[in-house]
Amino acid sequence: MQHYAGQGAHHPVPPGHPPQPARPPAERGGGPGWGGPPAPGGPPPQPPHAVPPPQHHPQPPAPGAPPAAPPASGEATGQVRLPPAGPVRTPPRPGEPVHAAAGGTAAPDAAHAAVAVLLIGPAGAGKTTVARYWADHRRVPTAHISLDDVREWVRSGFADPQQGWHDGSEAQYRLARRTCGFAARNFLANGISCVLDDAVFPDWPVVGLGGWKRHVGPGLIPVVLLPGLDVVLERNAERRGNRRLTDEEVARIHGRMAGWYGSGLPIIDNSRQDVESTARLLDDAVARSLASPPSW
Length: 296
Prior knowledge:
By secondary structure, the chain is α/β, with parallel strands linked by helices. Helices cover about 30% and strands about 10% of the residues.
């Protein structure tokens, strides 16, 4: 039986109102060159046996000229185009149970599917400990991506929210989330599951759950880990360094997390559960989400 190590992530409460989402880019028009019908008065279509027009061969750039801009493309990381995020259907092993998904198509069971899970919870909920255990004991390759670990990759110039929440700390949070999202999509594209952990507030969707959905994709499975306040206070007291919060801050975070009740997301109360049993509950929540995805 494994118990919580008390070394979870540190998540301060950002003050003020959530920032407004960025306006979506304007949609492209359907003018010439976008595959629409030819403009009125344009040249008629050539007969089947007409000689095709000569091909245009671009001239090489002049010496010292700046390189041409690459063609616009969709979501990409470097030069590798990533597929939309979602459960990756891995080939079933001999004797492996296969369930029928919606529409009659076959899908692997939750224990073998490559999925991206976002483990949400307040400081002291045990997110990091549960995520590591769950990743260690799955039947398919699974990676653990901790937002705080990625955020602390910044050494010189690290914006510690305990020193004050400002534009710099918010920018580093956003950068860490985007980096985690790219990593998750790369793992999924290679058939590797991943579990991410973050303290996502229900009243701050733009940089919280909405941001994660944009970065990872619509196939992301969010699960809330929410033990009682007395439990998170006790676990927080066992922490050391800058990841230990004041009791007042822990209480504020826990109170805001209560807003997930009634959201439709799966919620696990692990107040009286050890790590192993909590991981089993997480397996059950992921299986239910794969069978019937929650609306969020």
